[in-house]
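Re-running the complex after MR caught last week's input typo. The corrected sequence lines follow. Everything else is unchanged.
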Amino acid sequence: MRLDLVTIFPAFFEALDVSLLGKARQKGLIDSRVHDLRDFTTDRHRTVDDTPYGGGAGMVMRPEPWGLALDAILDGDDSASDPVVIFPSPAGERFTQAIARELAQEQQLVFACGRYEGIDHRVVEHAEGRGRVRLLSLGDYVLNGGEVASLAMIEAIGRLVPGVVGNPESLIEESHEDGLLEYPSYTKPAEWRGHEVPPVLLSGNHGAIAAWRREQQLERTRRVRPDLLPPEELAGA
Ligand code: ADE
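Corrected-run output:
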């Protein structure tokens, strides 16, 4: 998978060199390229923002450097035929595990990381005219820019790219994969500071363990995320 990250703070993406995603890069499974938006400015001060039309607080990112940056990426000889351009934004649709699974199938994702009060909306319109575009929000809170949101999305997407996670089975039994929160996990020792591992997990009875885990998933989901419960489970709540 190829990733293009456009930002005025390239240093955020040094995080892609560590841990699982760092290994995926070394293995050639993920090819990420960071582009400094200021390299696409044409004035002496490398200006990327200006005051908003219509007034209001804050600054808006000017469209020209964004246009040049996206052109350079999308028209590049090594660009995929139909990349998805992602604008992380609190005004976007909510990013979910289902969207992560969808995007993990793509050949190329371009993350356009805005700062300040956002990017001039014509950049989104123009990108929509060129291909597939998604405005994606991490959640109902406001970050200072799209970089941290992009990193979170890239981690969620990247670990679903075949070969990135060593044991693909570990991807199945996780929160959100089956629509529920995951069950609690335990390892050795069997007793720690007076807390015991639930005895069923030591029983060796695989059927009983599976039933217990399912019940734990339902109980947790019912308690903290009832919005995730399927209607038939909600009825029993
Ligand atoms: N940029 C600022 N806040 C954001 C959020 N909640 N999700 C995605 N991008 C953002």
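None of the earlier attempt is carried over here. The beta strands are 2-7, 31-36, 49-50, 60-61, 84-94, 108-112, 132-137, 191-192, 195-196. Helices lie at 19-26, 63-74, 97-103, 121-130, 146-158, 206-224, 231-235.
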